[in-house]
Amino acid sequence: MTNQEDYFYDFAMKLVLEAGLVLKISIEAKKTIKEKQGDWDLVTEYDQKIEDTIVGKLKQEFPNHKFIGEESTGANLPELTNDPTWIIDPIDGTMNFIHCFPHTCVVIGLAINKEVRIGIVYNPILEQLFTARKGRGAFLNGRPIKTSNIQDISKCLVCIEPGFLKVASLKNKMFERIQLITKKTHGVRTLGSAAITLCYIALGAVEGYHIEGPGISTWDIAAASLIISEAGGVVVDRVTGKTVDIMNPRAIGACNDKIAQELVKIIHEADRLAELNESQEKF
Ligand code: IPD
């Protein structure tokens, strides 16, 4: 990491802590809630306000940098170039924020030459600040963290996102995936924030995570994928099993590649079962 990247990191850290304070103060406030793609995909005025503040300050400081943010970029994802690109989710876990469920966070990542170099995920409610810089390890509140070293899928705790059962095109597959993952692992959990869940793998609190669906995008996984890899884990594409493309996240996060590949297999099998059931229903 260059001195310049240290400066980027310090600047981003200041913004994350300021934004975290806004999130913490506003979690119990009355909010205006809007649906984006359905009642499983919500947004509040705080998502927009926090992103505007973060992006405004970054633009002022780094006018030549690029930006990808959940609220300003939306569905029209730009191409990731070699330019320094800030990737921002002002509130990841908006549904949790609305319900005062304490897993919600501010996320800032920075990619340079298409590689994530800085990742910061801050949950101000539980005072958990996850950080990573490329090649320098991963940290929770300044303390180094490592993924769990479990190698046996049946001993893993795995997180998933049942919200996507509400998406018609994914319903059958999600149902089979949840069922099969539950059968083949120690257990299943759901936290409702992709970034925090990936950080919990980095922390060694869970071993795996699968996320894929409409609205899931680069800001949900970019920063935390660096935090996982710096902690010894991986984030792979659930189809190819290779390193995930942060611009097309159909992701499996895991404490190590062995567990990631087991999850890839389970999801392939679940999808095959879903397709079989669908074709039988047609007859
Ligand atoms: C959400 C979270 C959640 C996932 C949702 C996402 P947001 O992000 O990452 O885990 O299930 O689909 O939309 O909207 O709170 O930034």
Task: Please report which band the strand proportion falls in: under 5%, 5-15%, 15-25%, 25-35%, 35-45% or over 45%.
Answer: 15-25%
- End-to-end C-alpha gap: 59 Å
- Uncertain regions: pLDDT < 50 for 5+ in a row? none
Number of helices: 8
- The total strand number stands at 14
* Helix share bin: 40-55%
Largest sheet: 7 strands, mixed
- What radius of gyration results from the CA coordinates? 18 Å
Question: What small molecules accompany the polymer chains?
Answer: D-MYO-inositol-1-phosphate
Strand-pairing-aware structural class = alpha+beta
The residue-averaged pLDDT reads 95
What is the 3D form? globular
Order of strands, widest sheet: 3-4-5-6-7-8-9
Name the helix and strand elements from N-terminus to C-terminus, one letter apiece.
Answer: HEEHEHEHEEEEEEHEHEHEEH
Topology of this protein?
Elements: H1 3-26, E1 33-38, E2 41-44, H2 45-61, E3 66-69, H3 70-73, E4 85-92, H4 94-99, E5 105-112, E6 115-123, E7 128-133, E8 138-140, E9 143-144, E10 157-159, H5 171-184, E11 187-189, H6 194-203, E12 208-211, H7 218-230, E13 234-237, E14 251-254, H8 257-282
Parallel strand pairs: 3-4, 10-11, 10-12
Antiparallel strand pairs: 1-2, 4-5, 5-6, 6-7, 7-8, 8-9, 12-14, 13-14
This protein binds D-MYO-inositol-1-phosphate.
